Amino acid sequence: MDVSGKWQLETIYPDLIVMLKVREVFYSGRTQFQQVEVLGSDIYGRSLVLDGKTQSTERDEHIYHESLVHPGMLMHPDPKRVFIAGGGEGGTLREVLAHHSVSQAVMVDLDREVVDLCREYLPNHHQGSFDDPRVALHHEDARAYLQNTEERFDVMIMDLVDPLEGGTAGLLYTQEFYQITKSRLKPDGILVTQSGPAGLISFQECFTTIFNTLSQVFSYTMPYQVHVPSFQTLWGFTLASDTELPHMATPDRVDGLIDRRLSKSLRFYDGEGHCGMFSLPKFLRLGIGDETRINRDDAPVFMV
Amino acid sequence: MDVSGKWQLETIYPDLIVMLKVREVFYSGRTQFQQVEVLGSDIYGRSLVLDGKTQSTERDEHIYHESLVHPGMLMHPDPKRVFIAGGGEGGTLREVLAHHSVSQAVMVDLDREVVDLCREYLPNHHQGSFDDPRVALHHEDARAYLQNTEERFDVMIMDLVDPLEGGTAGLLYTQEFYQITKSRLKPDGILVTQSGPAGLISFQECFTTIFNTLSQVFSYTMPYQVHVPSFQTLWGFTLASDTELPHMATPDRVDGLIDRRLSKSLRFYDGEGHCGMFSLPKFLRLGIGDETRINRDDAPVFMV
Amino acid sequence: MDVSGKWQLETIYPDLIVMLKVREVFYSGRTQFQQVEVLGSDIYGRSLVLDGKTQSTERDEHIYHESLVHPGMLMHPDPKRVFIAGGGEGGTLREVLAHHSVSQAVMVDLDREVVDLCREYLPNHHQGSFDDPRVALHHEDARAYLQNTEERFDVMIMDLVDPLEGGTAGLLYTQEFYQITKSRLKPDGILVTQSGPAGLISFQECFTTIFNTLSQVFSYTMPYQVHVPSFQTLWGFTLASDTELPHMATPDRVDGLIDRRLSKSLRFYDGEGHCGMFSLPKFLRLGIGDETRINRDDAPVFMV
Amino acid sequence: MDVSGKWQLETIYPDLIVMLKVREVFYSGRTQFQQVEVLGSDIYGRSLVLDGKTQSTERDEHIYHESLVHPGMLMHPDPKRVFIAGGGEGGTLREVLAHHSVSQAVMVDLDREVVDLCREYLPNHHQGSFDDPRVALHHEDARAYLQNTEERFDVMIMDLVDPLEGGTAGLLYTQEFYQITKSRLKPDGILVTQSGPAGLISFQECFTTIFNTLSQVFSYTMPYQVHVPSFQTLWGFTLASDTELPHMATPDRVDGLIDRRLSKSLRFYDGEGHCGMFSLPKFLRLGIGDETRINRDDAPVFMV
Question: For a tag site, which of A190, B182, D83, D270 has the least CB within 10 Å?
């Protein structure tokens, strides 16, 4: 193996760097908000990289997007109006639109250029979802949008970049922000947010804090996690609602819901996978129990 | 962050390399059989690296060793005599010895020098296990040992390096080898083997083949998987027996067994964790179903 | 310094890899003959990389091209007809055309696509040289071209990729090839060829062999070397002729020739620089003296 | 080529990192003053690395040390008393002691532990020089030593780490320091200092500033440079004196001096090599001419 050639380096932790052989650079440039790259590799196919961090890849984005979208959607009895913050690749939108019940998906992604680049370079991610007549796409800060809207949603999905210092989403993980989202959810509405890495090494970077912050605002919260290969670790998600979240403990129940309520079969998420995702390793349960930090606008907890 | 300094590179896949900052080199040298390094890093503490592959690290070896040992041990009603192949760090031995029921642990590791190095440099791994009077330690090829012994075991644990071409364990994953192990198990005995990477990218490297091969030899087999951070992916294990393996479906049952049958509390493995480990992602279940390859002495399937 | 981002890795020796931060990928693809990349970096500006090896960079190509072209051209009393093999970037052509005396420059580069890519992406290299009416550009194997031509040249310049096994130029460094070039040189003609790395670590890879091979064919040979930053080492060149090569020992003589015979000032090459280039370190002189290998068509010496 | 294994990364410029495969770590630790590593590689043999920067390697230290020591020593008519600042490996000392004329070598290296480590781990560097009865070895700051001594020297050799911010030698390259050295030189004494990288990319980091600073203090200064493979670039040196420095323009003169005045033959430095070293590339001569910065105690110019 000759290593000569182009590689993407990604600092996972300060002492751990992952090197990915790049076969093609589909796009590389700066938008108004961030550095964007669409890279091709033999392992992952096309990857979207924002500010040096892999957001999703053709090879495994279905793990991330199905895991983000379907548990919350299926826990809701009849999700008609869905809100998406971020999600520029269109993968979250694609999964939301697969639900028969959905009549409108409002997606707010700050960076129009990123969305345009994804539409051009990541067709296998969005699969034409942006052209669905149920979609309303806005390009502005999600927090500002929510503060100004009268709309109410059944499900709200936060598909945001990680809460990095100086990043674009630092104020979209705070107690104040979650108060705003709560006011825009219908009474039985459900919020779900990607919540950062959840592996043994990194679960305290933001996962437990996001969970704890949501728990201050909502009556019911539920954490889960799944292994996303291109993220190099387990990845965390959190569900939150003021109505009790159903446990859907048997695989059959989940599989039945998928059959009835989706217009397509899923590649990753199913009943047995659901059990795996919601069975948290002991260290995560202990970590959640021990967490006392709360993200606040004036003192956000940033990832290292 | 200045990257100047010593780094350990590890080729995970041909196009993916992980770089770990090395803080200390405790040992580096060749034994009769392999290249050995004991490295220290801020992330993982002390790591054992054989032929360039991380075998286990102080930070997360408990995930690997508890997951390898306890499911099979607890599925057995009363494991008295336990066989371990490989396991030079002593972590597997440590977990086996924590079971009250164990009266003898026979460990066969080919490489005496590796075991001696682990005893010296990895005290937090073995925690003195090698000095337990119940331990019989042999240094020879595990296959040769088993062919020549009259002993019969309740549980046999294969804690081997991956089946790499030219490696030391290529013939310890074949149908013929499993026939030998079967003949050394008591009628209700249980075998478990580490089975290589089980993530979306790499589960076909050896995991599904090992499962399929064991299924040719034993009446009952059961795969499971867990995320081991220092392996950079999910990791697979396979249980095999000619007696039906219990499902232990409720967390409480597992937690109760742990309480009753172990002389210590566990850091990773528990009832809820058990559910997560045995709830296989859809792609793994499909991959297992599709696998037709069988490891045979004259045509072993090597990892890439 | 965060190392996240795109880097070009180049294996200089098997145990030494250079990583260059890539700011822009201007082109990346395969031609009929080789992998081509035009990369932009803060350090070197635009680089041409063929089959993973840096050929020249905007920042320091003038060192390489001026050193390759001018010593031989100025040693010739009146170079009118000049032959160039390789040289796709156009930098060698640019330097040749700066000589008032030149009436025709015949350039033969195998790979039309590379030349077209250089014309498009490396304007600061060629600076429009390809449009000079004195240029005749051919795309075929330089050896075949020379075997079939009746032309005779004053100066022949070999600006070829290194003699790598499986590369495009393996047979353009052999005794048989040099016999052909000799037959196409006018009686007082001078040949010069890039001759690979000439630093302490690597001068035996091909530099001394090329020198020794040329010495079998030509009555007079003269080695020289210069530090080219982007090549990470000293770089070797060899002059050869059947007419005695002048030593031009005083800086003033070289500076005077540059003034009179060139239509532009030079950035790197001058009288004092000439002295530096032709004053070989002791290890190189000893290495040349010790070399016995000869490149032959049926037994070429390839770089590692 | 499998890249798995230990590598030393060294940041040469912020966008250029060199990776060296490490075969052995002979020593790694912190002294009172700096991080020290003695590494073994196939390319370079044993390397001394201080604070992440390669100081010298077994393979090419003779290029550096012979180039640092002999030009100044041979320009002096009869060097008896020699001062060395730094030079912990003992290579500079070794070269100084090879001069018949030397009756005393005073070496002041701040870091006793580094010198002890070099004595233990770098025998091919020092070759027993520390045991020569002409040597007086002191461990304190070289500036303090010189301020307090009544001694006067024929030749003073500054073999120091680069002037890095926060490093140990920042105040050993300033105008004020050079005033002190001048006062400790005999009237016809000569000072020479290593002067940092002198390649096209990096000569402005400190080389031209050191030259310019010395030129403020001494009547005569003379720069030279040589390619040191393990430094990845040309390396600069500066001679300074209040007596005119001889040009030694003919190789024969240098070779004759080496024969007469040294007790051993040299591996790198000779008459022709001298010409190469003192024939500066045009960009260096222009760079020196353009330089206006002066290192002062209250405003030192640090390398990036």
Answer: B182
Nearest CA in chain C to D67: C281
- B148, two tokens: 């020549």
Across the B:D interface, residue pairs with CB atoms under 8 Å apart total: 54
Average pLDDT taken over every residue of chain A: 96
Contact B9, D3 (CB under 8 A): yes
Cα–Cα distance between D207 and D53 in angstroms, integer?
17
Residue whose structure tokens are 């932790």: A13
Alpha-carbon distance C2 to nearest alpha carbon in chain B (angstroms): 6
pLDDT reading at B136 higher than 70: yes
Q: At what angle do helices A271-278 and A61-75 cross, to 10 degrees?
A: 90
Q: Give D70→chain C minimum CA distance, Å.
A: 15
Those residues of chain B whose CB sits closer than 8 Å to some CB in chain A are 1, 3, 7, 11, 13-21, 41-43, 59-60, 63, 199-201, 227, 229, 232-234, 266-270, 272-276, 279-283, 285
Alpha-carbon gap: B140 to the closest alpha carbon of chain A (Å)? 33
- Interval C65-89: pLDDT, tens: 999 999 999 999 999 999 999 999 9
Counting as contact any 3 or more CB pairs under 8 A, the partners of B are: A, C, D
The pLDDT tens digits of the residues spanning B68-103 come to 999 999 999 999 999 999 999 999 999 999 999 999
- Find the chain C residues whose C-beta atoms sit closer than 8 A to any C-beta of A: 2-11, 17, 22, 24-25, 28, 37, 39, 52-53
The answer to whether A43 contacts B201, with C-beta atoms less than 8 Å apart, is yes
> Which pLDDT does position B217 carry in this prediction?
98
CA distance A251 to C168: 60
Judged by CB atoms closer than 8 Å, whether chains meet at A8 and C6 is answered as: yes
Structure tokens, D9:
């990364």
Distance between CA atoms of residues C183 and A244, nearest Å: 91
Segment A65-115, tens digit of pLDDT: 999 999 999 999 999 999 999 999 999 999 999 999 999 999 999 999 999
Q: How far apart are CA C299 and CA C301, in angstroms?
A: 7
Q: What are the chain C neighbours of B1 within 8 Å (beta carbons)? A: 1-3
- The structural domains of chain C, ordered by start, are 7-57 (2.30.140.10), 61-290 (3.40.50.150)
pTM: 0.94
**Do the beta carbons of residue A108 and residue A142 sit within 8 Å?**
yes
Q: Which tokens belong to D243?
A: 């007596």
pLDDT in tens, C170-184: 899 999 999 999 999
DSSP-based three-state secondary structure for B63? helix
Q: Give catalytic status of residue D159 as yes or no.
A: yes
Residues of B in contact with C1 (CB under 8 A): 1-3
| Annotated active-site residue in D60, D154, D159, D162 | D159
Q: Which chains touch D (3 or more CB pairs under 8 A)?
A: A, B, C
Give residue B130's pLDDT: 98
Q: What are phi and psi of A104, to 5 degrees?
A: -150, 135
The two three-digit tokens of residue D276, written as one number = 């190469």
Please report the sign of the dihedral spanned by the C-alpha atoms of residue B124, residue B130, residue B132, residue B134: positive
- Ramachandran category for residue D5: left, alpha or beta (phi over 0 → left; psi -120 to 50 → alpha): left
Beta strand D185-197 with D153-159 is parallel
Output the average pLDDT for chain C.
Answer: 96
